[in-house]
Amino acid sequence: MSKFFALIPAAGSGSRMANELPKQYLLLNNKPMIYHAIDTLYRNRFIIRVFVILAPYDNEWHKHDWSAFSEKLTVLNCGGITRAESVLNALTTAKQKNLVGADDWILVHDAARPCLTSVQLDKLINELTGDEIGGLLAVPVADTLKRSNSEDRVAHTESRENLWQAQTPQMFRYDLLTKALHNSVHINVTDDASAVEALGLQPKLVVSDAYNFKVTYPQDLALAELIIQKRNNP
Ligand code: C5P
Asked: 102-150: per-residue pLDDT in tens?
């Protein structure tokens, strides 16, 4: 029987956040941002271990209290230059330590998506457990999309038909994900699904909602905090 593992790449510097502190450590509701993602994944009954991938030079993690997660949290200091490299390094390390098997499901989730809910997570697992390939949470694009020229003027309007915004978690079996990421080391993939697509496969899109957005710019922090506060005090 395949087991379920969560893997949170948190080795990025968050340059678009304009803050010296890597964004996964910025405080949301008095906890580092990554705490909220760990919490949701940790409480899921299917997930038996949560891996967090840190940069080798990370000097923030140890300043916080993670004891609430001690039963199934493993920290790997093997982050790479890109997100894909960080994930691949962690997969290799986990296999070397005999912690994961070839058919196990890996749910890769960005540290910068603190508003993931247990409902979204359960839905992803339920819809994909019997799937040949795997897939990801995503939302159909709602806005009209403009393609710009080099002067920030509209070159043309893109059709939004069949367009989705990819989110995380993205859920693939260990062997497929490892093969896909190895195969795409020289392509610039920004998520796991793109690496799988580069093998000619079609990951399944599981409908999510806008609450699971990625905190990227300074103004996103206040919105994430509001969502988390509302959830904690309904
Ligand atoms: O930069 P971006 O927001 O796309 O990063 C998505 C996730 O990948 C973040 O959680 C970030 O910490 C992680 N990441 C990583 N290693 C890198 C770059 C990004 O683990 N080299």
From this structure: 999 999 999 999 999 999 999 999 999 999 999 999 999 999 999 999 9
Residue 175 near residue 102, CB atoms below 8 Å? yes
* Residue 136 burial (C-beta neighbours within 10 Å; 0-12, 13-18, 19+): buried
Q: Can you tell me which residue has the tokens 């710019």?
A: 217
Q: Which pLDDT value is given to residue 234?
A: 76
| CA pseudo-torsion sign 139, 51, 71, 69 | negative
Q: Which atom of ligand 1 is nearest to the CA of 87?
A: 20
Which protein residues touch ligand 1 with a CB less than 6 Å away? 9-12, 24, 53, 79-83, 86, 110-112, 214, 216
User: In this predicted model, what pLDDT tens digit does every residue of 46-59 receive, in sequence order?
Assistant: 999 999 999 999 99
Q: Whose CA is nearest to atom 11 of ligand 1?
A: 12
CA distance 175 to 187: 19
